[in-house]
Write a structure and sequence with these properties.
mainly alpha; about 60% helix; about 0% strand; elongated
Length: about 70
């Protein structure tokens, strides 16, 4: 599942694995991208970036409603 792959990527990243090492780890275990392809370092980088942005948006950013009328 996507969540399991994301958890693996973030776990390895938190253990200071490089993007190249993470992509090799996933490819060595035959874990494919959502499109069925091999991972490569720049894809790991963009995945980590998107996961961090999503986490920040969902967890750390309260919404504030202002200036609306009925």
């Amino acid at each position: 599942s996507f969540q399991k792959k994301h958890d693996i990527i973030l776990d390895l990243h938190s253990k200071s694995y490089s993007n190249k090492e993470i992509s090799q780890y996933l490819n060595d275990r035959n874990i494919k991208t959502p499109h069925g392809k091999d991972y490569y370092p720049s894809l790991i980088w963009s995945t980590i970036k998107k996961l961090k942005l999503r986490d920040k948006r969902l967890v750390h950013s309260p919404y504030e409603l202002t200036n609306f009328e009925f």
